């Protein structure tokens, strides 16, 4: 979904300002009705200028939500291991990974051809919340819970901080991060002498794993 002037600017030689002028002059219609400056349109709408339809040249973007099994790597060539790209059809194998998981972890992996979305999901400045379910070898002490929130030195340029950590049962915890450094959760717990037995990611930002079976995926189409 997008504003009508942006849609016109994306699919014609008109600038947004000139698109606004055409709208005010009554030259633009959406599905046969006069458009106004605040109109929101999708790729399914028929947009005309001076009764001539404009085509949607920007197309749509694809997002794949994959439930990664343990034992698969987030790499196209696999480097001798099974790649997650084996789990999706060949026509999707040009998609890029937005947020990797290590070989021993499972759960939500997002693949997309949307460069803007890729940047939003991977760059730390966007602070996309990631939610994990973690099974440990022992119960976390209150002192260590405090350290996980305030920061643990894992040898990087900055401390590793969890946005939230909540106990689900004796050894099971819910962990939320605002970033995604390499094996950050495992390294953070190891620094405090805990071993991660299983790690499963259930969401990244607004994207949730839901009931997607292990090794399967769901496709989303993002309208532009």
What does the overall shape look like?
A: elongated
- What's the average pLDDT? 89
> How far is the N terminus from the C terminus?
6 Å
Low-confidence stretches: none
List the helices and strands in order.
EHHEEEEEEEEEEHEHEEHEEE
The main pleated sheet reads as: 9 strands, mixed
CATH topology of the largest domain, anyone?
Pseudouridine synthase
Q: Please state the second-level CATH architecture of the largest domain.
A: 2-Layer Sandwich
Please characterize this protein's 3D structure.
With 224 residues, the protein is an alpha+beta fold. The chain folds into 2 domains: 2-53, RNA-binding S4 domain (Structural Genomics Hypothetical 15.5 Kd Protein In mrcA-pckA Intergenic Region, Chain A, Roll); 62-219, Pseudouridine synthase (2-Layer Sandwich). Helices cover 19% and strands 31% of the residues. It is built from 5 helices and 17 strands. The protein has helices at 4-11, 16-24, 115-122, 142-150, 184-191; strands spanning 2-3, 28-30, 33-34, 40-41, 47-49, 52-53, 61-68, 72-73, 82-83, 96-98, 106-112, 130-136, 164-167, 172-177, 196-204, 207-208, 217-222. Strands 7, 10, 11, 12, 13, 14, 15, 16 and 17 form a 9-stranded mixed β-sheet that branches. Helix 1 packs across helix 2 (16-24). The chain starts with a strand and ends with a strand.
Please describe the topology of this protein.
Elements: E1 2-3, H1 4-11, H2 16-24, E2 28-30, E3 33-34, E4 40-41, E5 47-49, E6 52-53, E7 61-68, E8 72-73, E9 82-83, E10 96-98, E11 106-112, H3 115-122, E12 130-136, H4 142-150, E13 164-167, E14 172-177, H5 184-191, E15 196-204, E16 207-208, E17 217-222
Parallel strand pairs: 8-9, 11-15
Antiparallel strand pairs: 1-4, 2-3, 2-5, 5-6, 7-11, 7-17, 10-11, 12-14, 12-15, 13-14, 15-16
């Amino acid at each position: 979904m997008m504003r009508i002037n942006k849609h016109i600017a994306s699919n014609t030689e008109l600038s947004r300002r000139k698109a606004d002028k055409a709208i005010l002059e009554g030259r633009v219609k959406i599905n046969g009705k006069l458009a106004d400056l605040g109109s929101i349109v999708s790729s399914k709408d028929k947009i005309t200028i001076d009764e001539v339809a404009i085509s949607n040249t920007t197309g749509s973007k694809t997002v794949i939500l994959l439930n990664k099994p343990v034992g698969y790597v987030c790499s196209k060539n696999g480097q001798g291991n099974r790649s997650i790209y084996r789990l999706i059809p060949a026509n999707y194998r040009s998609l890029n990974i937005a947020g990797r998981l290590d070989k021993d972890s499972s759960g939500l992996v997002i693949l997309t051809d949307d460069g803007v979305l890729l940047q939003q999901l991977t760059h730390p400045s966007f602070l996309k919340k990631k939610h994990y379910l973690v099974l440990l070898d022992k119960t976390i002490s209150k002192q260590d819970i405090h350290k996980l929130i305030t920061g643990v030195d894992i040898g990087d340029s900055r401390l590793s901080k969890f946005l939230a950590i909540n106990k689900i049962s004796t050894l099971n915890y819910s962990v939320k991060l605002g970033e995604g450094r390499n094996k950050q959760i495992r390294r953070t717990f190891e620094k405090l002498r805990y071993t991660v037995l299983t790690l499963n990611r259930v969401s990244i930002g607004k994207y949730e794993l839901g009931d997607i079976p292990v090794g399967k995926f769901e496709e989303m189409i993002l309208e532009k």
